[in-house]
Amino acid sequence: SDEPGGQTDGQTGGGTPRKGGTIKVANQKPVSTDPVAMQDLPGYGIVAQCFEFLATLGPDGDIAPGLAESWEPNDDGSVWTFQLRQGVKWQDGSDFTSADVAATMDRLAEAGNSGLQGVLEKGGVDASDPAVAVFNLTGPNGNLPYLVSLYNAQTPITPVDYETGTTLQDSPNGTGPWILDQFDANTGCTFSRNPDYWGEAPLLDAQEMTFFDDPGTMITAIQGGQADAIVQFPAIAGAALLNDPNFTVLDVQAATHQQVWMRCDTGQFADPRVRQALAMTFDREGMVQTLFNGRGVIGNDHVIAPFFPYFDDSVPQRTKDDEGARQLLSAAGFADGLKATLQAVKFQEIPDFAALIQAGARAAGFELELAVEPVDTFYGTQWCPPKPADPPCSGAAELGIVNYGHRPTPDVYLNAALSTGGVWNSSQYSSSEFDAAFKGFQSSIGVEEQTVAAGQLETILNEDVPVGVAYFYNYLAGHSSKLTGVQVSALGQMYVDKAGFTE
Amino acid sequence: MSIESVDPVIVGGPAPAPPVFDARGEKRIARRERLRLLVRRPGFIVGSVILLFWIVCAVGGDNITPLDPINDFDVSNQRPNADHLFGTDQLGRDVFSRVMAGARDVLIAAPIAAVLSVAMGSMLGVIMGYYRGWVDEVLSRIIEALLSIPVVLVALLIISVLGASAIIVIGTVAVLFTPIVARTVRAATLAEAQLDYVTAARLRGESGLFVMTREILPNISGTITVEFTVRVGYAVFTISTLSFLGAGIQPPSPDWGLTISDTYRLIQAGFWWPTLFPALAIASLVIATNLVADSIDTVRSA
Amino acid sequence: MSDPSTPHDEPGGERTGGVATRPDALSVEGVELAYLVRGIPREVLRGVTFRVAPGEAYGLVGESGCGKSTTAFAALRYLPTNGRITAGRILVGGQDVTHMSDRELRNFRAHDASMVYQDPGAALNPTLKIGSQVAEAFTTLGHDKKEALDRAVDALHRVRIADPLRVMHRYPHQLSGGMQQRVVIAMALACDPQLLVLDEPTTGLDATVEAEVLDLVRALRHETNAAILLIAHNLGVIRSMCDRVGVMYAGKIVEEGDALEVFEAPKHPYTIGLLQCLPRHGARKTEQALFTIPGTLPQIGTPLPTCVYVDRCALADDLCRDEVPPVVELEPGHWTRCHHVDRLAQMPEASPQTKSQEGEHDLAVELNAVSKTFRVHGTDVPALVSIDLGLVDGETLGLVGESGSGKSTLAKAMLGIHPPDPGGEILLDHVALADKAGDRPAEAMRAMQMVFQNPDSALNRSWTVRRILMRAVMKLTGANKRTAEERVQQLTEGLRLSPRHLDMRPRQLSGGLKQRVAIARAFAGDPRIVICDEPTSALDVSVQAAILNLLSDLQFDRSTGYLFISHDLGVVRYLADRIAVMYLGRIQEVGTTDQVFNGPHHPYTEALLSAVPSVDGEPSERIRLTGEIPSPADPPSGCVFHTRCHRFMEGLCDVVEPPVIEIEPGHLSRCHLPADQLGRVEVGTG
Amino acid sequence: MTRYILRRVALSLVTLYLLATMVFIIVNVLPDDPGRRIAGPFAPQEIVDSLNERLGVNDPLLDQYARLLRNVVTFDFGESFKFGQPVKEVMLPALGRSAKLVVLGFVLTVPISIAAGIFAARRRNSFADRSVVTLGLASSSIPEFVSGVTLQFVIGVQLGWLPVLALAPSDAGLIGELRYLLLPALALVAVYFGYIARITRAGTIMALDSDYTRTAVMKGLSGRRVLTRHVMRNALQPTVAVIGTQIGYLFSGLIGLELIFNYPGLGSLLVNAASDKDFPLLTAGVILVGVIYMLTTLTADLIIAWMNPRSRLAGDRA
Ligand SMILES: Nc1ncnc2c1ncn2[C@@H]1O[C@H](COP(=O)(O)OP(=O)(O)OP(=O)(O)O)[C@@H](O)[C@H]1O
Ligand SMILES: Nc1ncnc2c1ncn2[C@@H]1O[C@H](COP(=O)(O)OP(=O)(O)OP(=O)(O)O)[C@@H](O)[C@H]1O
Ligand SMILES: [Mg+2]
Ligand SMILES: [Mg+2]
User: How far is Cα B298 from Cα B290, in angstroms, rounded to an integer?
Assistant: First the structure.
């Protein structure tokens, strides 16, 4: 079945950690800490300290048994049986049972969790045996363990009496290694060791998490010794950390990428040759180098990241070719060049990415105007405005850049952004060939079969270029070298329960 | 022999003026004299030269920068060197060229915002100072209330809703500066409206509009000029701050405030040059307008 | 600069013997002083030499800007940072002030010399109570705090402050100008100085207050034995106060001598000119024009190698231009710097004239029961109370009264600038006028115009003279541009302005010229009535004379009526046909000029007249007004004047409002005393 | 004096009312959909609608206006959209932090800039004077976020002398907190030193040239006494006025510094409220800032009135 996205350096070892001490973690200010509704990485990272998933982060970055000790599908994968860990207690002292799992899944189904939607319906979990949770799915799904793992970040198990809509700080009653002591949405929160934790008790006594508005300040905090660990940092601003001997970088390969969408239905980019031409102007290696200090891999205008096990590397890589791009442009009727506005959001390195695209495309005859907007206006005006609603996202701009966070499988990207009628289909790409190939991909089982299906998708997307994908970039986190045993996922969940100070 | 003696003409300010007994009494002499005084002040010269330099940069834009400030990429993060006087930024663009080209947006926006605020503020101020009474009282309260609104905050709010277009940035800054200008102009008008020539005008039946625009306004033009120069300086500052906070001028403009906000974190990585030079540029522009304003003020009140 | 006379052979050097053992209180020896203006030294004092003996009062007179204050400040070495003494010495009590260290200087100022100057309001620290400011003068003398406070009370007593303990707790702005000046004087006298410098101590104060302050100084002089250097441009003040006087012109003393002698028999053309500019000995416009001195004082720094006065002197000839005039000692102690002492008789004199109004004139403006109440911070301030007044074509009605009596308010009410309270009426040619200027017909606006006190503020400084006049003509007469241009032409000629002035801005004109432009503007629409609110009080006497001549000429030519407001009774007497005396918003007396001046007068008028120090000598009997002017917001009961009246009759005046009595036909007074019991003041000689 | 205070307070209340009205207008005139803001761009319309219903944004404007005025009077603005907590509870800690920073900044700035201003005024046009003026102008022309970052990097990171973040741990104690606040406070000093020194210098020059100073000198007082007793009380009035306005302004004006030093003060709280469209928090914040501004200017005016009794007559400054 599917492989997870994260891997490699997501964890540190070396040195024997001692017991005790308080770790100071720098995290960005969370938007929400409602486990069911949260959408932001900082929120994920906080909630994951107290609440646990059925499947958690393994040492290799893959999922590993968490609150479930093991899981087993039936033959067609439509029913999954999870053996729950025994002896686990909620922090208020009550026992963890399958009723908690069932209640959590019901809440998620009600809220329309993006991963579980169409997979599991309300009441789909059978909790008749307190030690076993049986998931009756709406259809076969080989990926279910991922969908109830930390990679579907809204799925931590909350107690059966958990009230929908409340936040971690309202009801901080988890099963995790950390107990929330204090929480202030503006400044930060503190956790102390859960003495009754079912697993190995954390070495550290406590965790102090400070919230930041500005990611850059987090780096300063590390440099100034006011933080021991940083949940995420950008590669360029954090350049100093990358070469700092007193700092350990946690570099997690991720499928995080930025899509340059081009409207396929109307306008200047309706002709695939124009889209190909623009994609041909990308200096992909240069971009990865400049924007991410080399911490990423180049993309080939499709959304299957190279480290997915089913990645088909036989599809030829598109490389920078200004001459070729110019010719394609002429052929498409833009012999005198093409003028367009590139919509970008002021988020992370996107403005810089846009500037690189703008500059790189000039030689081929693209005259791109940059329009950069803050996050709160960009989404909802340039990208997928609520109106017109049919087809979804048909009000999007002609050309723009949008960010896609890490997913353990490419399904969401393929479904929402590229399928006909997809809710986030800002390029209004509509290809029956693609839709069919996507169906094939979803129903294929086993890496070989998946690789074939993925190869098809790659070829179609690389040909049609509804979105330009120049790179996938790594998730960077890190901590002071005085620490060891810190583990992080590409979704902002930093686990320090096995961590400790070495000196 | 009652009045056959006609007093000789004295040119120049009241007390400490040189004895110029110029029978021709050109009306432009006074202005020329002030100009001469201005030109003699080192502060004015330094300020004007800096200002002029930035104006040239703003007008010339990327036509006069050594390299294309937006589209020319070299190796990123180079220290200042012979090829790149101020080094290169995180994308490998020439910082020197960007600093030069960065003058444009702010030099368009700041003076326009200043002009608008001075125009609106003067209008309000003159009305308040001339009519006094309840008109003044009411407007004063409104101005006081406006002044108590946090400037940057409201700017951010407006911009976050209406989007960060140049027009909105300019308009916002102009509106925010208006009450401050109004207060200064009101004070000047108040003093001016006490003078007897205003009474004389009313005695021949001039309208309020005439008195305000033709009689009073020319006499407070000095105050207004100074206010304008000062406001330009503050507008540069405010617009840069807005850009820094992401609500002002938008990328890929090489605008200084924006550049600083894009690059200031790189200082920690040891790349101080993409931040330092735009910061110095802002400072030099603000200082220059201040020097010019100070000089005009001193010469005017001398 | 190149004055050949060294301090030693300077006249007045050998002073009378009796005091020779004590050094002079002040000895200024050949002081030359320059102000640095933009780096260039501009000479202000050009070798000033004079001495003040202990206990003596020395007066310094001269036009504005001639260097009087500079001399005074030099005497205490308190010069602006750009002032430089380039030659000469200044000795106070034998100590050389010019070479003192900071310490010595401080000591010297604390113990030996003091100064009082114009504008007492500014001289007191607005943030400190009177008591602590006065006491401070004693603590510097080494007294401890408590003793200093006790002494401060004594000091305030000494300057005739009735209730020192209360005043001690006041802030300066809570005191009237006269009181403030007393406080300043009290501080100045704290150290019993050898030398007291008074620089225009009464300028800006009312004549009545001025008289009080001068009385005080005179009395204190006898008590303290301080030598006094008194600076004033009011010659009357100098005459009444000083033993000797020096006449200064362009940084040089041109004549010095016994005060009476100098004023009675001046021996320098400049002194003669100054004295002749004044309307003296009860002179009237119908009898003579006033003398004027042509030209203006040279700017500081102007090279004046020979006689400083040569450019304006009627007697000047080549000799004056080529050679430094000698010091001519006429009598012991009275000398002058002039080549032509023998020709002084040839000085032109004020020309006699006969002007009289022929026939009867109409009543142009009439005020019936006009009142004006201001509202200040919620309290009513009745500034005018039921004024009845008429003004005939071609007549000058003088309006006098202490500051704050409502003179300007009356003028502005007439003009509609301060709309009067409802109830009264203002009639122009027997037709009632709207209250507000803006509501009045153009004709009425044109008929009444105003000339203001301060020509600087009366002219729009960013307009050219041409624009000022054109606008007035066009707006008032409705003339088109061409006719207006002609009219402006006529006006400039009529006012003896030259056409080249038309393109200048007010800044480029001297004070006198500015006032002329302002008058021209008032006359632009051929008004029936012109209201002149102290039109000459900001001007030097020589300029004042020219303006007064001009006003009277214009009146005779055009038969314009004037409402002429002034503090200067001499001027009013010269110009007015009738006089109204105001007190606290009420007219107390009205009559022809002769009636009002010759009496019998209302007690208030009597006091006013007797207060005036005159170059012609003191009134025989002086009636001093005591106490403060009551606030118009809270006027006294009965007769509003009763609190200060020397004829106060208890039980009557403070209870019953006095009736208006007719002393003679046309001579009305508001007093309980019958006409035959009213007093008379002998002023000058008619 | 009582009368003066009453009058000033009354006027401030009028201003407060106008301020509330303006905030109401701004919040309502701006085209926006708070429900959508809170729920995010992906939320279904029904959720947005029900949110809007709950927030009362669809109520008649007059009702909303009345509600706002009531809130101002009781100083109770309900719950923050974003934090789900009473606005007061979110705002007061931030206010306290802002106050600490501003106060520390001014405690450091005011004495040295006043001293420098007086020093410069006494040596008018000397080299020292010019240096103070030029240095002040230069330092106040560098945006505070630049000087802040520079200080942070040099003193905090390179030299390691002071903490780089301004928020002290809860157990830091007063001295500890000061240490944490020192870097941003120094950035404030850089900005305000020049401004206050210049104002002080101008005021001092005026006072030195005044007649009452002349009187004092003529009394034979020592230079120091003249300065402390006569000059300063008068000269510092504009300085006090400026400090009053600036302190009021800075409570919300330190967004840049708060960002750089990760100091959760009022400025960044309100900026976030503005971008989150957390209207209850924003409205309350703007009004709170307005009230603070009025209080500081009022205090300044009262101090001036105390320093100079004459100014009580002049009433208020517009
Ligand atoms: N600090 C200064 N710098 C330059 N010029 C000055 C300065 N102070 C005074 N003057 C000029 O010096 C001249 C003499 O001034 P001073 O004050 O001594 O005259 P004054 O005789 O006292 O006049 P007034 O009667 O108007 O007081 C005037 O022309 C004045 O303008
Ligand atoms: N605009 C005003 N508002 C309030 N009170 C006023 C106003 N103008 C004048 N007053 C008051 O009215 C009274 C008369 O003032 P007014 O100026 O008419 O006196 P005046 O006789 O012209 O005095 P001066 O000789 O000083 O010019 C004074 O008590 C003054 O304070
Ligand atoms: Mg003088
Ligand atoms: Mg008056």
Answer: 12
Residue D73 CB partners (closer than 8 Å, separation 6+) = none
Q: CA A223, CA A244: separation in Å to the nearest integer?
A: 9
Taking the CA of residue B229 and the nearest CA in chain C, the distance in Å comes to: 21
- Give the separation between CA C219 and CA D275, rounded to whole angstroms: 78
Kindly state the DSSP code that residue A15 receives in the 8-state scheme: S
pLDDT of residue D44: 65
Instruction: State mean pLDDT over D275-288.
Output: 84
For the Cβ of C408 lying below 6 angstroms from any atom of ligand 2, the answer is: yes
Q: Is A252 helix (H, G, I), strand (E, B) or coil?
A: strand
**Residue numbers in B near C501 (CB within 8 A):** 9, 25
CA dist list (Å): D79 to C376, D28, D281: 47, 18, 8
- Residues with Cβ within 8 Å of B61's Cβ and at least 6 positions away in sequence, in order, are B101, B104
Helices (H), chain B: 28-40, 42-60, 95-101, 103-131, 133-148, 151-162, 166-193, 196-203, 208-210, 217-219, 221-244, 256-263, 273-301
Residue A467's identity, in one-letter code, is V
Nearest-angstrom CA–CA distance, B56 and B69:
16
Q: What is the pTM of this model?
A: 0.83
- pLDDT tens for C158-187 read 887 878 888 888 888 888 888 888 899 888
Tell me the nearest-neighbour CA distance from B284 into chain A, angstroms: 27
The predicted pLDDT at position D313 comes to 60
Chains touching A (at least 3 CB pairs under 8 A) are B, D
pLDDT tens digit string along A390-448? 888 888 899 999 988 888 888 888 888 898 888 889 999 999 999 999 888 877 777 88
Q: Are B233 and B289 in contact (CB under 8 A)?
A: yes
Q: Check pLDDT > 50 for residue C686.
A: no
Each residue of D111-156: pLDDT tens digit?
999 999 999 999 888 888 888 888 888 888 888 888 888 888 888 8
- Token pair listed for D157: 């990171």
Structure tokens that stand for B216 in this block? 């009073």
Amino acid sitting at position A267: G
d(CA C425, CA C366): 8
Q: Does residue C70's CB lie within 6 angstroms of at least one atom of ligand 1?
A: yes
The two three-digit tokens of residue C658, written as one number: 């006095």
> In the 3-class helix/strand/coil scheme, how is C247-310 assigned residue by residue?
EEECCEEEEEEEHHHHHHCCCCHHHHHHHHHCCCCCCCCCCECCCCCCCCCCCCCCCCCCCCCH
| Residue B238 binned pLDDT confidence (cut-offs 50, 70, 90) | confident
Q: Is A250 helix (H, G, I), strand (E, B) or coil?
A: strand
C201 touches chain B (CB under 8 A): no
Do at least 3 CB pairs under 8 Å connect C with A? no
Give the pLDDT band (50/70/90) at residue B1: very low
At D53-75, the pLDDT tens digits run: 877 777 788 888 888 888 888 88
Per-residue pLDDT at A26 exceeds 80: yes
Please count the CA atoms within 13 angstroms of the CA of C434 that sit on its side-chain side.
11
Mean pLDDT over all residues of chain B? 81
Q: Evaluate whether C535 touches C568 at the Cβ level (below 8 Å).
A: no
Beta bridge partners of A26: A210, A230
Atom index in ligand 2 nearest the CA of residue C405 equals 21
Phi-psi label, residue A490: left if phi above 0, alpha if psi -120 to 50, beta otherwise: alpha
CA nearest B144 in D: which residue? Answer: D15
| Alpha carbon distance A118, D312 (integer Å) | 75
Cα separation, A369 vs A362, in Å, equals 11
